[in-house]
């Protein structure tokens, strides 16, 4: 590949973003700053008598609660622990990660991904890599460390440019993060924040929501993005890279007979788990079926967190027993403990974010800002598809500076979810628009946590590769995925198709 000493506008802009982003405080620190800002603003706006008419409860007036008053200070001290333990995503993430942790640490996730991409015909290798990368989001970060280096090795073995294989896998893993055939840990994580934000404007509507609110859109996205990623790899990225002339020393790590046996056992366990869960909801006497016979708004959809836990834990346990990565209950306990140990940073973040979100709600600043914002948008007439596209652009730009999907949504959801509800767009639609922006810009964000690791993998084949080279390679994926996903969302909006079970596009109070 030829490297130009003079960088284009896009790469210069991304270099600037990297510099600015690196100077930003840690997300934990940011949330503490935001919490302090909310406290100060509550005193200022309360002193100025800011108020609005509540559109949900007619006749009621919303005023700003001053957190620097005696009552406000008492609230902050008395509720510090409750704000932390009551932070919506905290419990859901920790519980789902218990199941995913067993599936990952037993070796099931890695074996499943390797088995998928090494067992397809060479003509379908590109599609298999992109598809496998998209599906790897069910195991959080496993795709970055398993599929990206494997993609390079597989392409090299086929006489193709290894960096094209790495790029295809990286695009699937990162840019397709919000598409999957299964529910992942990201669904309850973001969904709980969305529900909490929606509850500030309409608690009854928030109670009717479920974590599978984007599931239909996610399923279709898997196949569409697989086709788009395959096209970009074979028609744009690979021809640009040219012929690889370096030496190949790595070998493909094919599945052993024990691993294959373990995968079959895990598949049987997964199907048995699905069958057992089906008995809880499909029959009319199913205990997780709604009282009126409804399935969408049934206890089942309110129990998706333990459902996800079981669907990962049981197959992971069976795989571990067959492959001997789990020999006894001590191994299970150790793997669960190791998984929770990796969540330490998230728990600290949850404490800071919990205070910010609670203060924002307690002061009524979130609702007032949402109502004022909705009124402004209606006055200007800036609504509809242009508004949604603008929101996606703004969220994608923010993603270049703050990599954590949950951290960004914890900041944005309390403002944008009720604001969009105020002009007739459902929380489910706002969340899906955010997920599109967050996923598609991951591959061009130098601050994405795994970006440096992917560069390290790439430097095995070209020692001169740096941030600019990788970004220029991944930019076509980011652009193509964004365009196709936005077009999909426009189709959904035009035809009013539900984004998930009981999850409409438009909000009706």
Question: What does this entry look like structurally?
Answer:
Mean pLDDT is 86; it is low at 1-5. The chain has one domain. It has 22 helices and 2 strands. It has a two-stranded antiparallel sheet. The termini are far apart. The longest helix has 29 residues, at 467-495. It has helices at 9-23, 27-47, 70-78, 80-85, 88-105, 108-118, 125-135, 142-157, 162-175, 186-199, 203-208, 215-241, 257-279, 304-323, 329-341, 344-362, 365-380, 384-399, 405-422, 427-440, 451-458, 467-495, and strands at residues 51-53, 61-63. With 509 residues, the protein is mostly helical. One of its GO terms (molecular function) is secondary active p-aminobenzoyl-glutamate transmembrane transporter activity. This is p-aminobenzoyl-glutamate transport protein. Keywords: Membrane, Transmembrane, Transmembrane helix.
